[in-house]
Amino acid sequence: MKSAYASLKDLIPLMKSSKSKIKIKLQASQNYEESCTCNQMSCLICSRKRSSSMISLKLLKPSVMVEQGKIEKQGITQLQSLIQRKLQRQASNQLLQQTYYGGKQNYDPKDSSINQSTWLLSKTHSRKISVDNYSQKEVTQLKSAQQQSVTTISRLAFRFIYVIGKGGFGKVWRVELKQAKKEFALKEMIKAKIIQKRSVNSVMNEKFLLEQLRHPFIVNMHFAFQDRENLYLVLDLLRGGDLRFHISKLKRFTEDHAKFFACCMLLALQYLHSNGIIHRDLKPENLVFDKDGFLHLTDLGVARLNKESVANDTSGTPGYMAPEVMCRMEHSFPADYYALGVILYEILIGKRPYNGKNRQEIREQILAKQATIKEGTPNVSSQAIDFINRLLIRKPQQRLGFAGIEEVIHHSWLKGVQWTKLLNKEMKSLFIPGCIDGNSDFQNQISADSELEDECQSLVRRKSVQSLFDGYKFQ
């Protein structure tokens, strides 16, 4: 057996004249190094089953081993295509590793602040196996649509009905997937706006996290694709409006409503935290009702894996941002519990505990005094007051939930909650918003488009800019 390093073109004459079997090692012109430390049973980067005790991979160099017999059987053209696909797959794996893990992934469930209890883990499956909470008909429709759309999914695969919302990067449409006759929400994001706001990492991070998740109380992703001008994210269609819309209409909610909302949020947070994800932007705008009144958590744009150090990460909304995040300190899951306390304070009292025109004003108020709900506040029980006040504690080490989410769900205010029934949506919500996406008040809340600068629009014509969105696809 002979071996050599050369180009395929140089070796073809040699292989034709030689009677012996020749092994050729074809290498990419650029060497890539992979250092996978995802510490998962099924690695997302190397796509191989791995022991949970494995922490890293040895340095790998992409190469393809081809024998002379395969060349004779397959032909040069087919062989070149095979080699190209293998090298592209290896480069894609490297891109994922570098983009989403930065060469490292230090999350270890054993070291996190959450106690790895199994109180609901049996019900919170990953995307690949989580079909328990969907009817058999819906599962069949989705699988059929996904199988049929592997090569055809694009903007043309959907019938656009009308706009149901607008965000920082574009519109949110109510659409129908033509083949499956099933409705979704389609988030259309303009690449030029994403670049203008320096949010490429945010939108890529959201897609990467959503493709690994599926849960009854988060807004799940079904497809992701792009064209030259836009990114498209196809999500669950929820027609009850967001919590901010209903707060603006009703001002306050009853304590029973607040408890039900808190339980929905805790189920979503428990699932994210059990997967090592901090949401970091829990607020009324990111909590959306379905028509039956169940709250769903959305927008993972600033969510992050619970890394070893996130001290310089201050993403979030100031009014709901935990003090440790505001002050650029180390933070973890308790930051989400603080935001939960702010939301409950707002819907029961009618205002946020700390208000200001900007981040600096809010920060000064937080440092000046500890916000609390006073005992004897009308229509709020002492148990609810204790629950919210403990969530709002400024020091995360003293905050309710620092020892794990079990500390939150076992509080006396939530005693008697039937978590399994709620997870399966077998109980009735006390607040029924119905379908409001066609409501005139809701439509008036949708803001107008902002114009793009010509310079920003011209950016998307560059190949280097388009390469920033490589891998934005999920079907």
From TrEMBL:
Keyword Transferase on entry: yes
Keywords, in A-Z order: ATP-binding, Kinase, Nucleotide-binding, Serine/threonine-protein kinase, Transferase
Pfam families assigned to the protein according to its UniProt record, in alphabetical order: Pkinase
GO molecular-function term, one example from the UniProt record: protein serine/threonine kinase activity
Annotated AGC-kinase C-terminal domain residues: 415-475
Substrates-to-products reaction catalysed: L-seryl-[protein] + ATP = O-phospho-L-seryl-[protein] + ADP + H(+); L-threonyl-[protein] + ATP = O-phospho-L-threonyl-[protein] + ADP + H(+)
E.C. no: 2.7.11.1
Top EC class, one word: transferase
GO process terms (BP): intracellular signal transduction
Domain Protein kinase: 158-414
Binding-site residues for ATP, renumbered to this chain: K187
Family, similarity comment: Belongs to the protein kinase superfamily.
Name of the protein described by the UniProt record: non-specific serine/threonine protein kinase
